[in-house]
């Protein structure tokens, strides 16, 4: 091999060692650090929550001239639930929650809109909603411990319990033309004698599963490195206001 040929081979090897493909395989340690930092920005949270709930009276008023309400005559209405959330890149959060809401109401005469007063039925409402809701939330991080947020979601709800209505029999103190609650119908305990004055109960046909729409406004407080507290209110087929607490990591 001549000296010129050997020199040419040497130049070729040097060129390969400095080719663009070889240079692209270089890994910047700072890039790895930045990538790891991006992964660390994801966080997870598990909370238990407690809420006061109420079906808005104005919604019931759209279909009934007379009706009972939540939080009436000593009735209390609360919802209990848990939620697991994934907060992506500190930009938005996805949460999956399960709740049970007690929507029972005291017995009372219910009168459908445009019906004559003596068509009112004594109605007992003993139902609750077991909901599974997937929601998205958007946060505004005011500082490291306080973040107001807004969100919404959808899901199904299983109806638990029943609604029974009792039709007053003609000729009894509870059936009088021109009025839905004649004098002498209701006793001192606030309820009528269902056996003496009314026909047997008729169970209302309520769908076993209902769609749920969730709209939420709230504020998140990071009370410690792994502790979180939330105050929230909104609408989830009923009005709610409550508190949630749990852990984050």
From TrEMBL:
Keywords, sorted A to Z: Signal
Signal peptide: 1-24
Name this protein carries in UniProt: Outer membrane protein beta-barrel domain-containing protein
Highest taxon in the source lineage: Bacteria
Keyword Signal assigned: yes
């Amino acid at each position: 091999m001549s000296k010129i040929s050997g020199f040419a081979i040497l130049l070729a090897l040097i060129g390969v060692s400095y080719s663009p493909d070889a240079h692209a395989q270089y890994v910047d340690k700072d890039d790895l650090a930045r990538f790891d930092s991006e992964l660390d920005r994801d966080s997870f949270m598990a909370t238990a929550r407690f809420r006061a709930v109420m079906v808005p009276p104005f919604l019931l008023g759209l279909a009934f001239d007379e009706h009972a309400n939540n939080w009436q005559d000593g009735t209390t209405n609360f919802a209990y639930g848990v939620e697991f959330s994934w907060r992506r890149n500190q930009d938005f959060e996805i949460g999956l929650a399960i709740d049970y809401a007690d929507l029972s109401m005291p017995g009372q005469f219910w009168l459908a809109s445009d019906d004559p007063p003596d068509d009112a039925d004594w109605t007992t409402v003993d139902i609750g909603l077991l909901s599974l809701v997937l929601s998205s939330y958007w946060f505004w991080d005011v500082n490291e411990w306080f973040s107001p947020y807004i969100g919404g979601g959808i899901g199904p709800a299983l109806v638990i319990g029943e609604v029974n209505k009792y039709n007053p029999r003609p000729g009894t103190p509870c059936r009088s033309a021109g009025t839905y609650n004649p004098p002498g119908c209701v006793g001192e305990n606030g309820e009528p004698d269902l056996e003496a004055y009314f026909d047997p109960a008729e169970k209302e046909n309520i769908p076993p599963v209902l769609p749920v729409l969730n709209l939420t406004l709230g504020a998140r407080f990071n009370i410690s490195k792994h502790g979180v507290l939330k105050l929230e209110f909104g609408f989830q087929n009923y009005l709610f206001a409550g508190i949630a607490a749990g852990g984050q990591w």
